[in-house]
Design goal:
The longest helix has 20 residues. By secondary structure, the chain is mainly α. The protein contains 5 helices and no strands. The protein is globular and about 35 Å long. Helices cover about 70% and strands about 0% of the residues. The termini are far apart.
Length: about 110
């Protein structure tokens, strides 16, 4: 299940998402997440996409304004963050982005 080369379309979606995440406005984060998810549908073993999706969930956690009073949205985002890191490292155990994002304080 190692990473192969992503499709060109998946690569371009990840580049667009990376640009959106640089702005870090909530509507951009949500759009970036959708773009990365689409890239992953096209190239399921694209480790950089999984790592960037983990990062997007982490940014979403930091910027969310609509957390449920019981913290359920934060819990869901954190589980998704960990899941995407795991998928990135499964596809490429030496993926620099996954290793970097996995070192963020939790």
């Amino acid at each position: 299940k190692r990473q192969g080369y992503p499709s060109l379309e998946a690569y371009e979606l990840v580049l667009e998402a990376r640009n959106l995440l640089g702005h870090a406005q909530f509507q951009d984060i949500d759009k970036a997440i959708r773009l990365i998810q689409l890239a992953i549908e096209m190239s399921p073993n694209y480790a950089d996409a999984h790592a960037l999706l983990a990062f997007a969930y982490n940014v979403s956690i930091e910027h969310t304004d609509f957390v449920q009073s019981d913290g359920s949205r934060l819990d869901m985002l954190f589980v998704q963050f960990l899941s995407e890191l795991e998928k990135a490292l499964e596809a490429d155990p030496n993926n620099a982005l996954a290793l970097l994002f996995g070192s963020f304080p939790r």
